[in-house]
DNA sequence: GCGTACCGGT
């Protein structure tokens, strides 16, 4: 008990605690106080200790609310087993988990990718006849979307509306996303009208979700019209919107407009981020504006703007396209020196560049090195090497590579090495 | 109690 008080003293007024907790004076008051302390506690272990005290020392049955607070903290700390235990404990004490309890459990397990667990909590909730509310339904819509079950998301949305709940901005934005993924473009656009009719003003996220849906489906011209609709509605832009539009302009071969938008961001009070830079870099590369690309890349370094693996992969691709193969290779060294680890995309880009430059031996050697080093080689990386061999007319090598891809248990890893002498430039 | 959108390789 003393230890417990000491630990509680870290977050509360020690004097007050002692006064209220001399439990033999007024037990009811100290319990009430402890429950209120509990509601402000965010450390999961301390809140658990508090709950135990209420349970055991005070022999008082905590409320569902008290359990919900502790379960929330436990879930935030990703203590899944403890959460299960608390849920069972509630049941044993004949406390009925409510929609908050279920909402938290479903959301946190779902967010962690533990979809099966999340769905089993939903099942329990339905068995308990606990009615959903807006937040719970929104969470379920998001969960279904992440699972790729768009028709489930759509049916939850209509269940929500049927039960008389008015969707809010977040729910509508989620649905725009769902309709977009389900390729129901018209329905996604209709959401904008429906939300306005229900007094919910579409925000930046609503529009940029539609914009990225357009991009994902190569509807770049439609993106332009959505963008002007957004401007007409006086909806403010942010970095994400600008990034999407820089991409759109690039895809439409409107590098000038992309450029103009990027360089006007700061005037609009939007700080371009690494994604903005990476996107403009790619637009420059696609437009064969190699000088601009190199300049931008080095400008980032001079100005100390964050560069990541995508920045380097993009720039490596550009050097490949401008036939500066050595510089592409140098960038791999440079990124490693700066602590940015190359990934499968870096390697497939560089292998494809070397193969096209007629340096198949070098490409094969790198591929071999990756295999031996145990770096994860994904489908595209294999495919890149297979295509490189095929283009060079080395069908046997391509076949060996395909066999390793299709059946990684076949131990043919050493074979390409045996062929290597013929390949050296 | 909960929460959404943007960049790179065949």
Automatic annotation (TrEMBL):
Q: Which GO terms describe its cellular component?
A: chloroplast stroma
Query: What SUPFAM superfamilies does UniProt report for this protein, alphabetically?
Result: HCP-like
Task: Quote one Gene Ontology molecular function term.
Answer: rRNA primary transcript binding
What keywords were assigned to this record?
Repeat
Pfam families tied to this protein: PPR, PPR_2, PPR_3
The GO annotation for biological process reads: positive regulation of translation
Presence of the UniProt keyword Repeat in the record = yes
Domain of life according to the entry: Eukaryota
Repeat (PPR) positions are: 63-97, 98-132, 133-167, 168-202, 203-237, 238-272, 273-307, 308-342, 343-377
Family assignment from sequence similarity:
Belongs to the PPR family. P subfamily.
This protein's name: Pentatricopeptide repeat-containing protein
């Amino acid at each position: 008990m003393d230890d417990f008080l000491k630990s509680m003293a870290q977050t509360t007024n020690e004097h007050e605690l002692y006064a209220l907790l001399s439990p033999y004076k007024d037990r009811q008051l100290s319990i009430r106080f402890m429950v209120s302390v509990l509601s402000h506690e965010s450390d999961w272990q301390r809140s658990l200790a508090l709950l135990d005290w209420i349970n055991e020392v005070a022999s008082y049955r905590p409320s569902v609310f008290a359990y919900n607070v502790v379960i929330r903290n436990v879930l935030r700390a990703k203590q899944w087993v403890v959460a299960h235990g608390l849920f069972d404990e509630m049941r044993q004490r004949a406390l009925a988990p409510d929609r908050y309890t279920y909402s938290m459990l479903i959301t946190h397990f779902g967010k962690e990718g533990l979809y099966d667990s999340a769905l089993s909590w939903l099942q329990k909730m339905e068995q308990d006849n606990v009615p959903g509310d807006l937040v719970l339904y929104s969470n379920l819509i998001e969960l279904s979307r992440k699972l790729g079950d768009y028709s489930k998301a759509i049916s939850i949305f209509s269940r929500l509306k049927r039960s008389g709940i008015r969707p809010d901005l977040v729910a509508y934005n989620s649905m725009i996303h769902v309709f977009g993924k389900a390729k129901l473009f018209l329905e996604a656009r209709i959401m904008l009208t429906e939300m306005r009719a229900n007094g919910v003003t579409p925000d930046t996220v609503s529009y940029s979700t539609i914009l990225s849906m357009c991009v994902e489906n190569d509807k770049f011209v439609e993106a332009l019209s959505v963008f002007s609709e957004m401007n007409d509605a006086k909806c403010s832009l942010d970095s994400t919107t600008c990034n999407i539009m820089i991409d759109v302009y690039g895809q439409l071969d409107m590098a000038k407009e992309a450029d103009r938008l990027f360089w006007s961001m700061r005037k609009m009070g939007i700080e371009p981020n690494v994604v903005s830079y990476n996107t403009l870099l790619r637009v420059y590369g696609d437009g064969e504006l190699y000088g601009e690309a190199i300049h931008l890349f080095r400008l980032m370094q001079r100005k100390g703007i964050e560069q990541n693996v995508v920045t380097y992969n993009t720039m490596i691709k550009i050097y490949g396209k401008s036939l500066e193969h050595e510089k592409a290779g140098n960038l791999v060294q440079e990124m490693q020196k700066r602590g940015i680890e190359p990934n499968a995309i870096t390697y497939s880009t560089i292998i494809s560049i070397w193969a096209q430059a007629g340096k198949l031996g070098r490409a094969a050697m790198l591929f071999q090195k990756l295999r031996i080093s145990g770096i994860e080689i994904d489908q595209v990386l294999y495919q890149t090497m297979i295509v490189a061999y095929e283009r060079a007319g080395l069908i046997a090598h391509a076949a060996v590579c395909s066999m390793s891809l299709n059946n990684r248990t076949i131990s043919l890893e050493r074979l390409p090495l045996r062929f290597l002498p013929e390949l050296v430039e």
